[in-house]
Request: fold
Amino acid sequence: SWLKMSCRGVTPVLRSRTHARCPEEEIVITGISGKFPNSDNIGEFAKNLYNKVDLIDDDERRWRHTYAEIPKRSGKINHLEKFDATFFGVHFKQAHTMDPQSRLLVERAYEAVLDAGINPKSLRGTRTGVFIGACFSESEKTWFYEKVSTGGFGITGIYMNGVDIPIERMYPPVEYPVSRGTPMISPLIKWDHSEDWYVTKFEAQKILKSGERHCKVQLTMDDYEYISGHVIDGRILFPATGYLHLVWETYGMMKGDLFFDMEIEFSDVRFLRATNMTKDTEIEFLIMIQPGTGRFERMRINGRDHMNMFNEENPYFDVKVSKELNMISSGGVEIVGLHASPVARRRPPGVPVLETYKFIPHLPAPQMSQIDAVRTCVQLALENNPSFKVKAVEVDTRETTEPIITFFQEALGDLPLVSSDLMYLTAREIELTGVHVENGKLSTQTNCMFVIASDCLSNPDFVEKSVVSLTENAYLVSREPKELRVEDIKKDGSENVKLKLASDDKPVGMAMLLRNLGDETNSEKTILRVKSRDENVKYVSCALIIPGIEGVAGNAFYAISANISLPAFVLQLTHTIGLKTIPEIARAVIDDIKNEVMKSSEFFYLVGYSFGAFVTLEIARLLEESGMSGQILLIDGAPAFLKRLAIGQISEDYTDETVQCVLISGIIRTIFPDENPEDLFARISELKNWEERVNKLVELGKHQHVYSEGYLRKMTDALYMRIKVTLEVETETPVPLKCPITLVRPTEVSIVDIDEDYELSRYTEGRDVKRWVAPTLKELRRRREKVGPEPLRPRSSHLEWNYKAEIFAFGSRLHENFDEKLLRQAFTHRSYIIQEEMKQKEVGIEQPDVGMLDNREMVQEGDELIGRYLDQYIESTMPKIPLEGRISIREYLMKEENLAHISNHIGTRDLILSAEFPVTNSTLADTFKAVVAALEQTSGSERASTFVRDFVFTQLNQKDLEEIWQVQNPLQYLTEYCSRNNLGDVEPRLIGECGRNTILAAYHVGIYCNRELLGTGFGENIDIAIEEAARDSLRDIFNTQAWRQPINFQECPPPNTQ
Reply:
């Protein structure tokens, strides 16, 4: 409206071109567009102004406050990074390097023309004035002062669109002895850099205000190119003195002086690990110098020019070693007390290591040699704590026995993938090959997997101190006398031994499952009083706890009642097992509650856990009908939440058979964690009815608990009936209660698409549930952050996991009919079979037989199939691309990360049987290859080739082939290609140029062959223009242009499967 007011009384008039405008005539604005601070258009800007919105802020989303030229508060444009390059016909590479003002200009100009009701295309060819005003540009510094490569799409982008701007008209005319426009020869003259000349390099020393510095190191950098020659065992390692150099240089930056002119001494230096480097990766080091309280000695550094010392006449420093002083000196650097651990070398592949698998019983203790005992310790340790680097330290506590650290050296040396760091701490003068010997203290050592000593069980102080040197899940190896008996250690009251052994009565199996089933002797009581903070017999109000699906007072509820400040009771639902609805259960116990719990109180406190939330709400409704009032506390339970959780784990279209199978499967996985759950489930599910299945289940677990068989049958029936009650409960139209409800729920729940209050707000007219939930959630979140995230667990550890069903679902999702046996083999890796065989050996099976085949042969077969199918697809769809290009495309599609990405998204990650978790990209890629081989063996080559086309070949969609197949020297490649195909000689010619000897110079080069133009290119200099022209020629010859017709994957001809 404010725009209309400014043009009040003005009528737009369309006049012919010959019409002469009167001087008094006003100008009419028929179209307008703009983008303002925090306003994307004119209307939004006007709305913000009318509402008095402050459009100026002080955040740092555009500029940091540390820039002196930027005010603290400023207006900022939204979405400055967004630009529809395709709509405006701008190449995506050029769009990335365009000035932001240019992008905004074309967008706003287009909007203004449309706002005027004019089609922008109709203005082409007309005499329409365009007036542009611009202030400073943020990109000026980037273009003029920093090394930015535009790839030929910078200023020269306008020439690629056919616009020739004669920049030379901006300069006074120059009379040449030749005609205007004749190319000059000076740009073709280049410097001869065939010889290297060493000159002094002057650099400014940066200054650090803090002791922290990030330093990026790459082998392609001039300052670190020398590191590529530091190769040990086939790997490029960052040299140890390189770390000292970085610290030295950082210290100089802190002091503001040149580091090579400073005096500095390093003491107590220890290098913990080596850093591997590759030519294509960049490593960032973090150097932190913290001021300490110790005094530092200074060492004089020669003031000579160190840069001139490295030349062809003096390429090395003289190194002097003094064994008496334990000192190494070179130039102006002295190193005292150097200890270098031997670098672990890979065992040559030609040296075989023979392995023998033996069963070693724990009791009775076997008679073994020292080397065999050490090998056993090493194997057990690495099996429970896999590691590629093992540090072992032996402490000479007896000073009379021979060290056994050499046995550890031999045992670890037979493992080709494990490197070792071995140390022997002793006051004796002894030399051990490959082991560092020093007279030191164990307290100075850290991250040890093994600490070896003697008589540790009689020296508890040493054991306590050695824990500091051990890493997590590490081991203390003690050399004890033969007459020591383990039984003596377990005796209570021992004066010499203070070590605590692990308890032998840890609950496992059925005991772990039934730890909350309460006391069988008190299970027949409907109301059971439990211990709380208030033990008074006479009370005005009390708390009633309604347990979960088990329905009895377990250990968890004793812990809850201990923190309640009221007399506490637990409602046991043992007598309600046969009831089928929640109202029936509540009516069956309400009289007992009124007579034994609420007889002298008019206010109730109800605490319901999980399934108990159903009964709690119904009991509260009955108590309110009798005139009482109170409060409800629900712990991770609500009707809507529990019903959706049960349906998600079973099915909405469930049957009694389905509920029984899910319940039995869950109990089996909890009772028998070390057994094969699928075999046990198959044996139980074959029985005819529920009663026989329960009897079989009780019989299998009778040795793992203290309950009677009748009680276990009753509890199993209770679980079954209450699951059915949960599935059938009505949650759509609840009757609201008057009492308030407090919900306690975990921060991470099993159902994510549910309200924060579990939809409990529909069950109460009292105070809002969410108001009570917020403090609890904050506390739970704080505790979760303190404990840390839960460890990642495989889906197979969930109770409802069914591997056979998942295998079937995998093929159904892909619409492929796999052979189940072959598909299982495709998902089985060798490491899993080895792991299962070791488990069988641990229980005494001498000849373990897992009964499974691994997928090694299928991986190799699948790799060959995928490669052959891709070669034929690429050749049929891109026939003009030469062989080396097709090979590059195939290698790109078969890269490990690509196949792993495909494998993960088709759902193989959770089905893979492997000893490692989570599985690596290598395992995912191998599994995908094995799946292709299984499909080929099941359904034939035609289905397998279609599978490869749909999942692998389609990865080329919207991919730039030039990024996949990169020609390093396009002109040389083009010359060789034309010569090989008898097309003639390749000749680059300069077609046009402008802005010579300026920063805006542009050259237009064409590539000719046999008097035909193959392609053209633009560039800031001749070399770039020739390279772009050669690339443009190759694109036309091989049909790899960005605008080429996309591949129709659906109509790809099937490959020849013969």
About this structure: The longest helix spans residues 856-877.
